[in-house]
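Service request form, structural biology core

Requester: graduate student, group of Dr. S.
Request type: structure prediction, single chain
Budget code: on file
Notes: please return the result as structure tokens.

Sequence provided:
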Amino acid sequence: MKVQPYKTMTEALEDLKKRGFTANFELLNNVFRAVDSGKSFQADDLTIVEHHRFEGASDPDDMSVVYAIEASDGTRGILVDAFGVYANPDLGAFLQNVKMREDR
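Core staff response, request fulfilled:
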């Protein structure tokens, strides 16, 4: 599946939700968690299916990355992080241990 690039982060979030990435993920105490269900996952339980980077041409605060992630139990969701100086270093370290599967 080839994914078309999105023009805005909002467009990406809306389309990913339509495609079944409905959980909201967060990193809490070095454990990945689906906020609504409370399910917890380790890095080896997860796969980054796709990611999209947005660069704020006029506003550095708009620099972000949207990750579409699937867990081994079938939970599919989204995680958003800043990049550059505003990126979460703990999240970056965690995501380096997550498998990446992208068809581009």
